Amino acid sequence: MAGVFINYRTGDGAEAAVLLDEELKDVFGPENVFRDRRAIPAGAHFPPDLWRALESCGVLLVLIGPNWLTLRDDDGRRRIDVPGDYVHDEIRCALEWRKTVVPVLIDTAALPTKDQLPDTIAGLAERQVMHLRVPYAHLDLPVITEALRHHVPVSSTARQPSPTDGEGLPGSGGLRAGGDAIHKRSAVSYGSGPATYNENRDAKSGGQR
Description:
This protein has 6 helices and 6 strands, in the order E-H-E-H-H-E-H-E-E-H-H-E. It is 28% helix and 12% strand. A 6-stranded mixed beta sheet has the order 2-1-3-4-5-6, with helices on both faces. By secondary structure, the chain is of the alpha/beta class. The protein has helices at residues 14-28, 36-39, 46-56, 86-96, 137-148, 179-183, and strands at residues 4-7, 33-34, 59-64, 100-106, 129-132, 188-189. 38% of the residues are buried.
């Protein structure tokens, strides 16, 4: 799989992960998009499948919600700091393997700074971000999908865009008059802070995500 691996935190991004997965597999084909709960069958010994998918992917999407950095385990530790945390380990490996790593900020989330992150994944703070506002997913998902076309093969069985898909969105070729000013920054941001928008280990056996 030279496609997309979706990295997310249960309790802070799982809904957006499903939303993104459904859109991406419709465009690129399910074989080119990895989200653990869908891609790994029940009863499977998941760690080998997980790491194989990560190693072979071209892009890691790191979904970051408003509470992504502060969620804690039963002992009061930040989950991102706990040894064996899948979210942390997937990001660390992708950075070490020089994958394309894209933070996707959900709703009002901001990109953590290097000082806020564990040293092993501090490089995440220097990656260009995209945005996914769940209430405005119809605007943001096509922008994310268009950006991924440069990295992900399109399956022959995937849905092909119609002439009106993404009308009014950057990169679609269908910008309406005056639409650029409204939508151009709907999903792409040039900075680490929260975007300003115009209105116009999962619960897996042996681990935790």
